């Protein structure tokens, strides 16, 4: 899998995929309509592409998912606004590969941040599996962080 920045002319296709992906949230604790802002808006996805935040996930030349990513090199951090895999490709490991691609795409990042609704059993389990730790729970959302810096080795004393 690879990720590449999406162009504005790809927004319609990505939006259709976003709708299919997020409408499955009713299967994992969400109510009908519990979807992120702009998930069904071609205009919103075009804007994200124009601003350089929309990435497409490609596997063997096939569009399988997308991500909205906000890198901040000044803070050495990346905020992952959302990721989604087309529902026809769920349960095939693409989400795991997409997260790995995002993390590899920004080798300078020391931290990755994201959030997800408390009710979403699928995404909360997924982010924990990917090594993200809970920072806080607030206003119905779980906020996660993953540090790329190695922790200090235990049991080794400084000279």
Structure write-up:
The termini are far apart. It contains 4 helices and 7 strands; from the N terminus they run βααβββαβαββ. A hairpin with a 4-residue loop joins β3 and β4. The protein has a domain at 2-109: Aminopeptidase, CATH 3.40.630.30. It has helices at 11-22, 42-50, 94-105, 121-129, and strands spanning 2-5, 54-59, 62-72, 77-85, 111-117, 133-138, 141-147. It is an alpha+beta fold and 159 residues long. Helix content is 26%, strand content 31%.
Keywords:
single chain; 159 residues; alpha+beta; Aminopeptidase; 7-stranded mixed beta sheet; 7 strands; globular; disordered C terminus
Principal-axes geometry comes out as: globular
Radius of gyration, CA atoms, in whole angstroms:
16 Å
Uncertain segments: 152-159
Strand order of the largest sheet: 1-2-3-4-5-7-6
Tell me the name of the CATH homologous superfamily of the domain at 2-109. Gcn5-related N-acetyltransferase (GNAT)
Helix content: 25-40%
DSSP summary, beta strand count: 7
- Count, helices: 4
The arrangement of helices and strands along the chain is EHHEEEHEHEE
Mean pLDDT: 89
Q: What profile does the largest beta sheet have?
A: 7 strands, mixed
Summed up, what is this model?
With 159 residues, this protein is α+β, with helices and mostly antiparallel strands. The protein has a domain of 108 residues: Gcn5-related N-acetyltransferase (GNAT) (Aminopeptidase, 3-Layer(aba) Sandwich), CATH 3.40.630. The chain has 4 helices and 7 strands.
């Amino acid at each position: 899998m690879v990720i590449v920045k999406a162009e504005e002319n790809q927004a319609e296709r990505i939006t259709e995929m976003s709708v299919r992906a997020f409408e499955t949230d009713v299967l994992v604790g969400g109510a009908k309509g519990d979807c992120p802002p702009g998930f069904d808006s071609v205009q919103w996805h075009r804007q994200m592409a124009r601003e350089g935040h929309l990435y497409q996930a490609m596997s063997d030349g096939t569009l399988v998912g997308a991500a909205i990513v906000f890198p901040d090199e000044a803070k050495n951090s990346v905020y992952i606004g959302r990721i989604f895999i087309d529902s026809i490709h769920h349960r095939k490991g693409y989400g795991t590969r997409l997260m790995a691609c995002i993390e590899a795409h920004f080798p300078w990042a020391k931290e990755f941040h994201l959030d997800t609704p408390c009710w979403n059993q699928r995404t909360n389990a997924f982010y924990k599996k990917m090594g993200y730790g809970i920072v806080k729970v607030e206003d119905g959302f779980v906020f996660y962080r993953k540090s790329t810096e190695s922790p200090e080795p235990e049991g080794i004393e400084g000279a």
